[in-house]
Amino acid sequence: MDMLHSIWNLSDQRDLNRKQDRQIAATDSSLQGAQQRIRDLQFRVGNLAATCQALCNLLVEKLGVSPEEVQGAIEQTLSLSAVSASGTCPSCNHPFDQGRTACLYCGFKPSPDVP
Ligand SMILES: [Zn+2]
Q1: Cα 88 to middle of ligand 1, angstroms
Q2: Ligand 1 center from residue 93 Cα (angstroms)
Q3: pLDDT surpasses 50 at 115
Q4: 113 and 77 in one domain?
Q5: How many angstroms does the Cα of residue 102 sit away from the middle of ligand 1?
Q6: 52 CA from centroid of ligand 1 (Å)
Q7: What's the number of domains the chain is made of?
Q8: pLDDT confidence bin for 14, thresholds 50/70/90
Q9: Strand partners for 88
Q10: Residue 86 Cα to ligand 1 middle (Å)
Q11: CA-to-CA distance for 78 and 107, rounded, in angstroms?
């Protein structure tokens, strides 16, 4: 009876090990997929950064826009994106009703031509 019990336990242990091996393989596969997606996104962000830099260079070199004007436009666009995305003022973080022209709390004014 003890011998049968031991064989039964070994069989159970083998099944458990196989199940754990399958779970590890599935986790590895999922991790590799996530790592590949991160590499793809890093590549795309790098391309976008290079494209933005090239466009900024063209603005400065061909159209005479100052680097400070380019930087100001970038910062304004980022703050407007923050208002749209969060519904909060990028300056003071209070709620910002999109229909308003200025923040009630700090006076921050997003550009009127952006929805
Ligand atoms: Zn504010």
Answers
A1: 8
A2: 6
A3: no
A4: yes
A5: 8
A6: 29
A7: 2
A8: very high
A9: 95
A10: 13
A11: 17
